[in-house]
Amino acid sequence: MPRRVPVVLVAGHLGAGKSTLVNHLLRRADGVRIGVVVNDFGAIGIDAMLVAGQASSVTSLADGCLCCTTDANGLARLLAELTAPSARLDLVVVEASGLAEPRELVRLLLDAIAGEAQHAAYGGLVVVVDAVEGDAADDVVRLADLVVLNQVDRVDDPAPLLVSLRAAAPGPVLPVVRGAVDPALLVDPPARRGPPRSGQLSFDVLLREDLGEEHAHAAWDSVAVARDAPLDPARFAAFLEAGPVGVFRAKGVVRFPGAAPFVVQTVGTAIRVRPAPRSVDVAGARLVFLGAGLDAAGLESAIDACAVDPDPDPIRREPSLLPILRYEESDRVDAV
Ligand SMILES: Nc1nc2c(ncn2[C@@H]2O[C@H](COP(=O)(O)OP(=O)(O)OP(=O)(O)O)[C@@H](O)[C@H]2O)c(=O)[nH]1
């Protein structure tokens, strides 16, 4: 069953550190195969990562990653190609510079997903803010599913900007140096790949040996919540729609009364559900939240508040599934 491939948009002002972030993801991919879409190869220092051949419109990088150039007109077609199962990518990252405004880019992506890029999924709008020049009043911050507060090494105290960004942004704010965002925050690392072949130093490993000075990934949080009672569809949908504090994405399996379990995935307030495979059986909820500044106790009590009312009237009808089913993704991919 082909997975949908998340497409993450990276936006931010000139010099904020978008290319540095994209570079970090590529260099620290750790087995996650990434397709990068830029409109200028030079910007991401591609020379350092070229494995073979000259930069054409699609260039293979270390560890199965790809780098592509396009303009806004070619984006949907390129996303369809990059997210097709034959490309074997786990994540696609689009650097906004010069392609389109972030709001327009989100619309282009959603149109592409609804149209020809049927194996793509919305992976979130990541906005890079520079700790020196950054401004929490910036419009784009209010659109961000994740704010990366970059260049914190260049200020004495990033706390005031961090606090105002946290107040302004709907999603979490992650302070970093040199765009050091862990790819695992953006996508689940694939389990399918075997151990590296022995006796051969891969290009990826060689690259990493060159990274002595590069900062490790910024710390991010994950919180797992497991409950044995089914959840009320309307309450759970309202919880997800509100965008729980600090959560960038969430995933898990949830059972609602009178129905088989559903797989639930969110990025920001973009919600996707689909019936769980038959092999998955839960009595209630198994959820993992990923983000920054997560409140574990708060998430647990929020999920408790989604539980169906105890001692239901035996003749009462089950709560409607509609609040959840409206987020059901089409089965045109999973039925293949
Ligand atoms: N000190 C410091 N410098 C950084 C950091 N992140 C990026 N830089 C530097 O800041 C400059 C701009 O970074 P880029 O990644 O090119 O920024 P960008 O947002 O891609 O820029 P444009 O593509 O021009 O919009 C580069 O010289 C980077 O080396 C950081 O965390 N700390």
Can you describe what's shown?
The chain has helices at 18-27, 75-83, 102-114, 139-143, 159-168, 183-186, 203-209, 233-241, 296-304, 322-325, and strands spanning 5-12, 34-38, 58-60, 66-69, 91-95, 120-130, 146-150, 173-175, 221-227, 247-254, 262-267, 270-275, 285-291. With 336 residues, the chain is an alpha/beta fold. The chain has 2 domains: 5-209, Rossmann fold (3-Layer(aba) Sandwich); 221-325, 2-Layer Sandwich (Hypothetical Protein Yjia, Chain: A,domain 2). The protein has an 8-stranded mixed beta sheet, with helices on both faces. A 5-stranded antiparallel beta sheet has the order 9-13-10-11-12, covered by helices on one side. A hairpin with a 5-residue loop joins strand 3 and strand 4. The protein is globular, with a radius of gyration of 21 Å. It starts with a strand and ends in an 11-residue tail after the last helix. The model is unreliable at 50-55 and 195-213 (pLDDT under 50). The structure holds guanosine-5'-triphosphate. Guanosine-5'-triphosphate (GTP) is lined by residues 12, 14-20, 43, 97, 150-151, 153-154, 177-179. Guanosine-5'-triphosphate binds at residues 12, 14-20, 43, 97, 150-151, 153-154, 177-179.
Overall mean pLDDT stands at: 85
Order of helices and strands: EHEEEHEHEHEHEHHEHEEEEHH
Counting DSSP E segments of at least 2 residues, the number of strands comes to 13
- How do the strands line up in the largest sheet? 3-4-2-5-1-6-7-8
Question: Which class of secondary structure composition applies to the elements?
Answer: alpha/beta
- Which residues sit in consecutive blocks of at least 5 with pLDDT less than 50? 50-55, 195-213
Number of helices: 10
CATH superfamily of the largest domain: P-loop containing nucleotide triphosphate hydrolases
Evaluate the radius of gyration: 21 Å
Strand content: 15-25%
Bound molecules: guanosine-5'-triphosphate
Global shape: globular
Number of separate structural domains = 2
